Amino acid sequence: MRRDLCDGVGIARLLNATLVLPKFEVAAYWNESSGFADVFDVDYFIQKMSGCIEVVKELPKDIASKEPFKVDCSKRKGQFDYIESVLPSLLEHHYISFTPAMSQRRDRYPEYARATLCQACYSAIRLTSSLEKKAIELLDAIPKPFLSLHLRFEPDMVAYSQCEYPNLSPSSIAAIEAARVDRKPWTGELAQIWRKRGKCPLTPNETVLMLQSLNIPTSTNIYLAAGDGLMEMEGFTSVYTNVFTKSVLLNQEDFTRMHGNTKAALDYYVSINSDAYVATYFGNMDKIVAAMRTYKRMHNTLFLSRKAFAELTSKGLEGVALKKALWEVHKNDFAIGRGFALPDCFCEFEL
Description:
Elements: H1 2-15, E1 19-20, H2 27-30, H3 36-39, H4 42-49, E2 55-56, H5 61-64, E3 69-72, H6 82-93, E4 96-99, H7 111-124, H8 129-141, E5 146-150, H9 155-161, H10 170-180, H11 188-196, H12 204-213, E6 221-224, H13 234-239, E7 243-244, H14 246-249, H15 252-257, H16 260-272, E8 276-279, H17 284-295, E9 301-303, H18 306-314, H19 319-336
Parallel strand pairs: 1-2, 3-4, 5-6, 5-8, 6-7, 8-9
Helix pairs in contact: 1-7, 4-7, 8-16, 9-10, 12-19, 18-19
């Protein structure tokens, strides 16, 4: 949500367009219909963006009843010019619904558009006061110091990856199959190629092995920044016993009332303020957390290499030999406290 919003701001500046507060299409992820104002401080956002772009809460009455002209650049490959590609549609229809290109290099925007995007990402977007209060309450409840671990092994994540895992429990297998729909897993040689490309999420047991290879003590306080329904956690919590979750730390009545995206916002807040952040995946959450931690000069951020794990285990390494090899892969990043793939955080910081 943050990434797409920042993209929208930068592109609105490029096109000299007015930005209407977005209505998030989150049903596909969270089975809900929460809006911008449920998570972010609307008035603060509009105030901070003043002078960069104009932001309005609602459409003007003369076009409110019209359907926007849809412009979808999400599948566009390579570099292209938004002004050349999109501005004609905006000028013709006056009102467009825009989906940015996923692969577009934002550091190639003109300086004025980059400045606007950075203003949005690092200054203008903050949680609502009530949600920030809840986030601070959660942060205060976690024993210090602590490591925030973004662990992705929920049924929908595994189903989406199209990976298969041996030796899962019957309940985990059933949950994954229910989430697969038409995304059938790769098999045979294709499955091995997919796994070696680093496309398969680390299991909790594999994550334990990775953390041990980095000599992270089993007594470490770990906050699980994860969605509901994490599978196969027994092996993890039997080794790392000081594991904390928002479902346990927060008032149960408050927690059950929360939507999926407000829970994700809490994980984000805790993760950008944790003593260390470790991610088993490299998705949107991890990129924006890493960028914000860099901005805050909190560099204890590490991304575990799924590709290295797959390559090493395919060679038959296990036990002490596997841990030693994993340490060799991660030791430089671990020593300086930065992930191997920090996002293109192009805003100019004095680091």
